[in-house]
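#random but structural
TW: two for the price of one
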Amino acid sequence: MIVAALLILAILLAAIRLIIWHRAAGEQASPLRLTLLLLLQPICAGLLLLGLFPPATIGGSGTLRIATAGTPRLAAGGTPLIILPEAGTIPGEAAPDLATALRRHPAANRIEIIGRGLTPRDLDAARSVAVRFAPPQPPKGLTDLAPPVPTAPGASFTAGATLAGLPHATVELLDPAGRITDSATPDPDGHVRLTGTSRTTGTADFTLRVRDGNRTIEQAGVPVVTQDSARPRLLILAGAPGPEVKYLRRWATDAGFAVSTQMSAGGGIQLGDAPVSIDGATLRRFDAVLVDDRSWAALGGGRGALLGAVRDGLGLILRASGPLDGATRGQWQALGFTLKGGNDLAPLALPKPPVVAIARTRQGITDADRPDDMALPDEMLPEVTRLAAAPAGHDTVTLLQDAGGTTLAAWRALGMGRIALFTGVDSYALTLTGHQPLYDQWWRSLLGAVGRPAPAPAHIDGIHWAGERMTLCGLTGDAQAIRPDGSPARLIPVNGCAAFWPANAGWHILRGKDGITPFHVQPAGALPAVRAARDRAATLMLRGDAPATAQGEPRPGPSWPWLLGWLLASALLWGLERSRIGRCQSAL
C-alpha cells in the first residue's frame, strides 16, 4: 500500500506538470498528445506495481508428480515430473528436495507421489500441499527393527523386530562373538521379541538373523549400549529366616540391586544387615521395599511411615509367606486389594519346563545362574504353592498369572508410588524345578512395575542411515558429533536441535553439556525393507491432507509479464515525450 501511495503521488505530480506545460504552450500543444501522456502515466505505474506485487493466481500447473525411490522409468511424461535424488536417473526435472521443487512451481497446490514414498527430508514440505499417494505393495522381509534402550552391565535387554511375508521364518539374536543368545518365531502379525545380555560397559554390535530353514534370508546389526548406572536400592523385611529370603536376596544381588535385608529371629533378635529405621528420611534412600505378612504385622506404627513413603514415590511389594491372619488380610484389603478365595494354600500351576532345564537340575550341573545348592534329588524337590485368594480390585492392574490363568500379583497406584500384592509363597522353588527363567521374570516384573523409576540415561533412539539427515536435540552451542574416525563435526543448534548428516556407518558420539551419548549409524544400503516401510507409512499419513492452498487459496503469480509490460509502456512514454508528434511547427 505504501508503494501504491507513492506511485499515485507520482502520477498526480506528473499530471500536474503535463497540464501546466499544456497551458503554457497554448495552441501550440496538441490535446491528443496531452491525452496520451496522461494515460501512459497511470499505465506505467500500474504495471510497475503489478510487477513488484504480482496478483494471485490459481492457474498454471496445479499438480506436480514427485518421483521417489522405486519409480519406474516409464513414469516420465504428462504433468511436470520432479526427480528427487533417491529416484535415480529418470527423465524429468531434477530437484535436491521437495521444498525446492515447490518454490520453483509456486502455482502447485497438490502433489502426486510415485514410488515408495517420501523420505523424512521432505515430509515437512509436503504438509503445505495436498498429497496423493498410491502405495506399492508392502515390502517383504525385515520391515521394522527396535533396538534396545541403554542397559546396565549384566542386565538383560529386549530387541524387537517385525517381519512381512515370511510366515515360517525363525529369528535369531547373535552376540558379538557369533553365539546365538535367543531364538523365536514371529507371531501371526510378524512381531518377535528377542532377549540378550550385555556383560561389560560400552557399545556392542549384536546381530539379528532371519532364517528360513537352513537358509539365511537377512541379517541386521543390533546396536547395544551398556552404561553404568546407580544400582536400585531394595529393602527386604522378613518375619523369619527362610529359603525364600535367601534366594531372593541372591537373585536381587545378581540382578544389580543394592540389597539390605532384615529378618526377625524372635526375642527381639534381628538378622541380616544393619538395622534400618522405618521412617520417611530412611525410606527415601530406597527404591523398593519387600515386606512379608509377618513383618507387616510387626511394623505397627511404622506402617504409616511406610505408606507415606509410597505416596512420595517408593515402591512397595506385599508378600504372603503363608495363610494370612484376619488383621493383615483386612489391612491389605483396605489398601485397595480384594482377595477373592480362601485363606489356605493351593498348588501353583507352572508351565512345563524345558527338557534341558530339568536334566541340568536333576544332575546338579551348575552355571552362572544356578548355584550348587540348587541341585536336589527328585524326592526332595519342593512344591510351588500360592495363597488360594487371588488379588484383584477395581483400580488394580494384573501383573502375574500362573499357567492356569490365576492371578498371582497385581498392583495399584498410591500417590506417586505403587503397591503390589504377590500371593506366591514358595517362589524360590522355581529355581529348583527347572523354572529359573520364570523366577527371574516374576521378580523383575514385580520390582520393575513398582520400583521408584530411575532417571533414564540419555540416548538417541531410532534407526539412522549413512548419508541421511538425522535430527539431534537437547544441544548447546558447543555440542559436537564425533565421527567413527575420531574427527569432530560441529553442530549449530536451533531451538535445541540440529541437523546432522553422517557420512559413514558405525558408532558416533554426541558430546554435549550432559556428557557423551553414543549412537549407531547403519550403512547406506542396510535394512532396505525397513527404510521402504518407514517411507511408505510416513507418506500414507500425509495422504488425504487437504490444506487451504489445495482448496483454491491463491498463490503469488509470476511477475515477469508485468515487468515486461512496464518496460514497454515506459519506453513508449519516453519516446512520446521526446518525439515531435502533436507539436506545432511554430513551437519547434
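TW: number two ↓
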Amino acid sequence: MFEKPIRLFYSTGAFEAGITADTLKKEAELFRQIQEKFAAQFEKAFPDKLAPKAVIIIPSLTLDQEILSKVKGVVHYEERLLCMLMLLRMPQTHVVYVTSTTIDPVIIDYYLHLLPGITGYHAQQRLSLLSCYDASPKSLTEKILARPRLIERIRQSIPDGHSAHMACFNVTNYERRLAVQLGVPIFGCDPDLLALGNKSNSRKIFRECGIPFPAGFEDLHTREDIVNALLQLKSEQPALRKAVIKMNDGFSGEGNALFSFAGSEKQADLRKWISEELGQRLRIVADGLSSETFLTKFNEMGGVVEAFLEGEIKESPSVQCRIDPDGVCRVASTHDQLLGGESGQVFLGAYFPANPAYAVPIGRMGKKVAEALQQRGVLGRFSVDFISVKEKDEWHHYAIEINLRKGGTTHPLLMLQFLTNGDYNMEEGLYYTAGGQARYYFCSDNLKSEKYEGLTPHDLIHIAMMNDLHYDGTHQEGVIFHLIGALSQFGKLGVICIGSSAERAKQYYERIAEILDKEGKRNN
C-alpha cells in the first residue's frame, strides 16, 4: 500500500509535492548520521592547511521566493559566497561552486587574483564551476535537485581521498536532501532546528538568556491576532507612535511592515479603529507586496508584533556567531548595520567592527544566545540583530531577531579573514591581522545608480585598474567588489572597503562612488 503524498511546507514557505512523511523522516535520520561524522572531520582536517579536502559551495537563497523576487538582481546574490574561493589558498583544497547561471570568467579571474601565495593557474586546477543554466525564480538548490546528472557531476568533482562538506547560505530541507544524496555533511543548522531562529522563538530565547528585547507579542497568525496585539501595545504604552509587524521567516527586513498609530488618540473604539485601518496603514518593506498578500503570508508563517523603538540617537548593530562541530561557541564579529529604504528596515551595508562604545557588551549578549542555541544542537554561523538607543549618555540594547544562516555581514568578514589571516577579538571589540594590525571595513550590497546600468564586469575591472581601486595585499587595505554580475542590468554591485581606520575605510567607499558616478555618466 502506497503512502499518501503530503505537501511539505518549509520555513521558507515553499513546498514540494509527492514527498511522504516517512521519506522525510528517513532523510532526516540519514542526515543526522552523516552530520555525526563531521566533528571528527572538523577536528582533523580544518586546522591542517595541507589536508586534502573539498568544499561544495551552494550559495542558494532558499527563502520565501515571493518576497525574494522583490530584490533586484537576486540571482546574482549567489556571487556573494565567491569570497570562499579564497579557500583555494590552501594548496590541497578543492572547491566546487554551483550557481543558477554561469559566472563571467572575468569575475572568477578577479577573485583568483586576490589569492595570497597561490598562482591563478594552480587554483584553477582545483576549482569546479558548475551551473544549472536556469535563471528562473526557484531557489538554486531546488534547481540542482531537479538535475540528477548535475548532482553526479558534483559528486565526481570531489577527488578520491578528500574529506568533503557543503557550505550553504542557509539550510532547509532542500539542502539537507542534497547533502544526503551526495553523502556529505553541511556546516550549518539542521532544518529541524530552523524554527529556533524565527521571530517568535527569538523572543523566547532572548527572554531565557535575560537579554532585553522590545515589548510585543509572539506566536501570532491571524489578522485578529495582529489587531489584538496592536491594541494591547497601545494600551500599555499610550505614547507609542508605531509598531512593527514581522513574519516569522522574513529576511533583511523584507518580511516586515510598519503600522502607525497617528490619529488613534481621538478614537473612542480603538480596537475598531485598528481593525478598520490595518490594511491601509501597513507600510510594507518589500516592494510591490500588497497588504492583503502580506497578511496572507503572515497567516501562513506566523509572526510577531513589536513596539517600534524610538530614539534621537539610534543604531542597528549585529553580532555574528559561529558554533563549531566541537561545540565551541565563538563571536565572529560585531557590525553597525546601515538600514534604509522608505521604512528604514532594509539592510544596505555595515561598518566593522561595531561602535567601540558597545561592541564588547553586545558581543557578550550574542555569546549567551550562541550557548543557548548550542545546547539545542545548532551548528554553523548565525547572527543576532539589535536596536541600540542612547539615552543620557548611556546605550540601551534590545535584541530583535536571530538569523540562523549566513547574511549580509558574513561574506565581508570571511573575505577579510581570508586575506589577512586575522581574527576578531571579542574582549576588545577589534579585529587584528596576523601581523597584529587593526583593520576596519565598510561594506555594502547596494552601491547602485541608474548611471551604472550598461557597465559590464569587464568595464568595472578596467575602471578599477585605471583608478587604483583594488586590494593591496602589501598594506592589507583597499577595495574588493562583489555582486559584479548585477551591475550591467541592474546598476548595482557590492563593495568591501578595508582600511587601517574606520575613516579610511569610508573614504575608499566615497571614492568608489565618485569614480563610478563619473564613469557611469560617460557610459550613458
